[in-house]
Amino acid sequence: MKEGRALPTETPPLIEVSDVSVRLGGQEVLKHVDLNIHAGEIVTLIGPNGAGKTTLLRVVLGLLNPTRGRVMCRRGVTFGYVPQRFAIDPTLPMTVRRFLSLPKRRSRTDIENALEEVGAGYTIDRELQALSGGEFQRVMLARGLLRRPDVLVLDEPLQGVDVGGQIALFDLIGRLRRAHGFAVLMVSHDLHLVMSSTDHVVCLNHHVCCHGEPEAVSRHPEYRELFGRDAGRALAIYHHAHDHGHDAHGNVVPLNRDGTPQRKTGSERE
Ligand SMILES: Nc1ncnc2c1ncn2[C@@H]1O[C@H](COP(=O)(O)OP(=O)(O)OP(=O)(O)O)[C@@H](O)[C@H]1O
């Protein structure tokens, strides 16, 4: 699933998060976070519960002001957002078509096309409440597509989706990214899928513990400490013979005898 294409890091980023800290309810939820998102790349935030992942998404989206630091967006950047929770009044009947026409009215054709793209065309006249978890997530993706985003922001898009459906959904996200060229910023807890489908992984635990290509992150001591030594195997099923490693910036570096990259990364933050 991983495409192995070069990251477009030579172009200026679409989004640049610099030295962002956020304090909520007396707690420092984010500390000195830096993050760049380039056009067309998939960036995934991983980290334990309460690590500040959703908070960082909200800062990037401009829904929450950082206590310190800043977020620079390229002029005219549009976001599609699929939040982690979506409160729907269960007593309020609403079809998928009507849901996708809110808050901005959309033509039936646009809605049909977006639903077809996510493989959920058949749901258009169904009640939202009657959808399965996987169908609902696809409808939410269609909702994001209708905004014609430069950056699609997905907060745990795999929730409520069974294992087979999760792989299909990650594949779909990759295909949509290729078809539309948007960047994807997402939060996911599924290390296997993240490690096989992402260009750039950011391991967050209030601060950025480490970041880089999945290969580099899976070898990082802080990643292993957070997710356990077995987490290194998240890459194993997709692993192929490699005569080199990558540092946390994605640069190719020689391997030590124990298989770790030779050069020390400079990306760790305190
Ligand atoms: N509005 C708020 N006021 C006070 N504390 C908040 C607020 N929003 C979030 N927090 C706290 O900030 C911390 C980080 O929350 P956040 O939702 O960003 O974590 P997360 O990494 O997305 O977690 P999860 O994986 O469980 O979804 C948590 O301890 C949460 O309780």
TrEMBL record:
**Keywords on this record?**
ATP-binding, Cell membrane, Ion transport, Membrane, Nucleotide-binding, Translocase, Transport, Zinc, Zinc transport
Q: Where is the ABC transporter domain?
A: 15-230
GO MF terms listed in the record are: ATP binding; ATP hydrolysis activity
Matches recorded under CDD domains = ABC_Metallic_Cations (cd03235)
Q: Which SUPFAM superfamilies match?
A: P-loop containing nucleoside triphosphate hydrolases
Statement: the UniProt record of this protein carries the keyword Methyltransferase: no
The Gene Ontology biological process terms listed for this entry are: response to zinc ion; zinc ion transport
Its protein name is Zinc ABC transporter ATP-binding protein ZnuC
Q: Which organism is it from?
A: Ferruginivarius sediminum
